[in-house]
């Protein structure tokens, strides 16, 4: 099993270089809408820097010969602010919109673009969702104008529970999640999947808490301790995960955490040595991917003194540049048509933008927090620890069916 999947950036960036360069020299503006203020500002700031970094990398060389420009707008994690930010980005010439933190803002973008693209032919825009993972976004609320590059909540839970079913020490599970669509879906799919795969496991707690508002998780940790849980499943991210892990370690809570977002800013520091072997994460990548992604991670850290963890941002750029070449255009209408069903190579192997619902199909990793080693040396936030891969699942394992009834223009 190869955890350090290698890819050749030159092959991706120069693919189809012999095609028509109808769009060569064009500047493609991308409107970025995510939080730069509030408790989740650190995550948003990291992701904006990641978009800027990869824009610079792809500007050096890409198959379409275009230049990327990122327009960063603080949406304050609010659907209302997202809608006004979207208008601002489009007024500045952005016809590609990216967002990832929170499904409420994601739905606001989908709704606004559905209306805009129907009413303003020739001024259409396309939404490239890199991290909003509510399954409904590619099911009941799917949109032709949205493509999702992260695995959704149900896909990640499918992989996570496939791993957990083979861990006999798991007997009592506590669910704690943020009280919005993603957190609610994590709890829903955890219960369904465990009932199917490990009916012997007992759910001993199920808490939902406000998103990005809790500063002291001690009361929640006390409830987990009192429940007798040996395992916690959480979809928390950002400060909500970092503060919860810190409170757990401060209280000496001896449980395993199965997470979605242990990589997000602040969480590695909160885990530190106290979480050695106790925290697991499901995701499309890990810190030690090898190949050019490892080089990107090292360069990013040197440049920003920060860690590169939302690596599907690379996939967004790889998909766009390949689609520009195939469409011989940067027009979102032509590009959207080319992206449907497109298969291409990204940093984590061969991937496919499923035509039925525009959900990227890709392999997923289970990684464990442990001391950095010669084999897995990358240390986030200079902790001396890393998330080391312990299992890889091919795309078909975590792929879930869709109920999307795509309405195409």
Task: Write structural notes for this entry.
The protein has two domains: 9-15 and 24-151 and 289-361, Response regulator (Rossmann fold, 3-Layer(aba) Sandwich), CATH 3.40.50; 154-283 and 364-395, 3-Layer(aba) Sandwich (Rossmann fold). The strands form three sheets. Strands 7-6-8-9-10-14-15 form a seven-stranded mixed sheet, sandwiched between helices. The protein has 409 residues and is of the alpha/beta class. The relative contact order is 0.15. It is built from 13 helices and 15 strands. 37% of the residues lie in helices and 20% in strands. Helix 3 crosses helix 4 (103-119). Helix 2 links the parallel strand 1 (27-34) and strand 2 (67-74).
Shape annotation: globular
Distance between the termini: 43 Å
Task: Find the CATH superfamily of the largest domain.
Answer: Response regulator
Strand content: 15-25%
Count the E strands.
Answer: 15
In short:
With 409 residues, the protein is an alpha/beta fold. The protein folds into two domains: 9-15 and 24-151 and 289-361, 3-Layer(aba) Sandwich (Rossmann fold); 154-283 and 364-395, Response regulator (Rossmann fold). The chain contains 13 helices and 15 strands.
Topology:
Blueprint lengths: L8 H5 L13 E8 L6 H20 L6 E8 L4 H13 L4 E4 L3 H17 L6 E4 L16 E3 L4 H12 L7 E7 L2 H17 L4 E8 L8 H10 L3 E4 L4 H12 L5 E4 L7 H5 L7 E5 L7 H14 L7 H16 L4 H8 L3 E4 L2 E5 L6 E2 L2 E8 L13 E9 L1 H4 L11
Parallel strand pairs: 1-2, 1-3, 3-4, 4-5, 6-7, 6-8, 8-9, 9-10
Antiparallel strand pairs: 10-14, 11-12, 12-13, 14-15
Helix pairs in contact: 3-4, 5-6, 11-12
